[in-house]
Structure to design on (113 residues):
């Protein structure tokens, strides 16, 4: 969780320091939406209230994030591309979702198919 909060701060810093008033307005709008429980991407608005939901989410959605971070790491906007290295190193959570799903199946808590 600490890494995710730092990543949010990092992106907010880029918006505010490189895009002035418009960047600050976008940062504030994103923060307000998050406080109201609505995030810009619909998949992040789904309720995760059990381990199966959590493991499935991390197994499916996190690999997509890794691809996005790798794409941004070669961005022509240097401050953004330089900030992706630490994020990529801090985001290996995908294996947790896969391992969790495998443990649930092995324990017989859900059919393998």
């Amino acid at each position: 969780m600490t890494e995710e909060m730092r990543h949010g701060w990092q992106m907010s810093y880029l918006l505010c320091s490189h895009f002035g008033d418009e960047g600050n307005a976008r940062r504030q709008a994103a923060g307000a939406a998050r406080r109201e429980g609505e995030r810009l991407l619909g998949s992040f608005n789904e309720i995760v209230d059990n381990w199966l939901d959590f493991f499935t989410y991390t197994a499916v959605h996190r690999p997509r994030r890794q691809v996005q971070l790798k794409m941004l790491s070669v961005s022509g906007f240097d401050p953004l591309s330089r900030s992706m290295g630490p994020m990529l190193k801090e985001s290996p959570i995908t294996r947790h979702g896969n391992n969790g799903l495998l443990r649930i199946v092995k324990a017989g808590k859900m059919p393998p198919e």
Remarks:
- The longest helix spans residues 2-35.
- The mean pLDDT is 79.
